């Protein structure tokens, strides 16, 4: 038996492997399980003397694989399209918008405050302030909660929040040596100074610096972290492929049944009108099994089939103080209730944000897992989702890593990401948060539930969770 002393000296991932190696989690067996009996709660989470903040509507342009129909555009073009779609869907007068907050991750330097550039392009009043936030994959979650804070504090009544990402055209820089030479040349005043600088030029100055989707603190790609996390929690390749197939199958069903009502068409300049997400591709387990590992070769289990893909897209959401929405004649979709952010070690716990955030937000709201009717979690990788489910189902993990007496328990899969998720719908980094929230609101209306829980992991070892409450019919 491993001694406590030995266990303490092991890295986190090794400790988890010891604890979870005998605890397989079969996605397919959970899918076959009978629906759990739901304990319905009728209470509202409204608080005395605190303004209710509501979602009036949320939209997104179709999420597309990078390098496809949006490849010749800029990020502000996509954001402008989402904002225009929101205006068209809601007919909200532009002059009543108090503030606009937008998220983005890979910034285009020409439009560093993409919120402002996109809002001007969409025809919003030039008197409406706008700012841009970045918090990796939870950037639009941060945009939403920034708006919630402005409304709750009484500073604003009407906020537009959103997010945008364009992975088809990422900024690629000259090397630092080349940049320094170019800057020095710009400052040089004489021909002699310029020639002296040019004489120092070497061919390796021309090697460009490519953007790497990796952690600055660890220099590890997120896919590499997902592979290690899956191994630590003993999530098999088959389980990951099964979950990815579930995501794509549910997304295709939702798309075919018209449930993805947040999608608005976008006429791409010089091209056809895009009307639906193009990354939804149900396959077979046999075909998925043929793919080679994408990150840790040759023994890794994370592949292109069970990972979210590089995506272009944008989303936008109209949130208001409840009294303002009703005064303007709107029927809100949902209340935005308790929320919080968490952060952990970006090395071994990079993708475990939902595990840490879920019990905290439930306690903050006075709810239990049984009160939640719909779960919408960001799917970065199948292995990440399944590792979180295992961690949430472990008393040992709760006690040793979270300082909790007992586990919170895993979400039942029959309530989990029922209309697909980031693995299938796509993941434009900063736009996903709005998709999660509006999908949660739409699912509550469609399914008759009262509470939804939104959660996501993000780079830097951070995470987010929020409770969404259905608006009374």
Characteristic key phrases:
single chain; 473 residues; alpha+beta; ten-stranded mixed β-sheet; two-stranded antiparallel ribbon; 17 helices; 12 strands; 15% strand; disordered N terminus
Walk me through what this model shows.
- By secondary structure, this protein is an alpha+beta fold.
- It has a domain at 177-206.
- Helices cover 36% and strands 15% of the residues.
- The strands form 2 sheets. Strands 1, 2, 3, 4, 5, 8, 9, 10, 11 and 12 form a 10-stranded mixed beta sheet that branches. Strands 6-7 form a two-stranded antiparallel ribbon.
- β11 (451-458) and β12 (462-470) form a beta hairpin.
- α4 packs across α5 (114-121), α6 packs across α17 and α9 (222-232) crosses α14 (382-392).
- The protein is globular.
- The model is unreliable at 1-10 and 22-39 (pLDDT under 50).
- Its EC number is 2.3.1.155, 2.3.1.16.
- InterPro entries: Thiolase, Thiolase-like, Thiolase_acyl_enz_int_AS, Thiolase_AS, Thiolase_C, Thiolase_CS, Thiolase_N.
- One of its GO terms (cellular component) is mitochondrial outer membrane.
- Pathway: Lipid metabolism; fatty acid beta-oxidation.
Instruction: Report the end-to-end length measured between terminal Cα atoms.
Output: 58 Å
How many distinct helices? 17
Shape: globular
The portion of residues forming beta strands comes to 15-25%
The major β-sheet equals: 10 strands, mixed
**H-E order:** HHHEEHEHEHEHHHHEEHEHEHEHHHHEE
Mean pLDDT: 92
What is the number of strand segments? 12
Strand-pairing-aware structural class = alpha+beta
Q: Which consecutive residue ranges, at least 5 long each, have pLDDT under 50?
A: 1-10, 22-39
- Computed over alpha carbons, the radius of gyration is 23 Å
**Helical amount:** 25-40%
Pfam family, one: Thiolase_N
Domain Thiolase C-terminal: 330-469
GO molecular function, one term: acetyl-CoA C-myristoyltransferase activity
Domain Thiolase N-terminal: 53-323
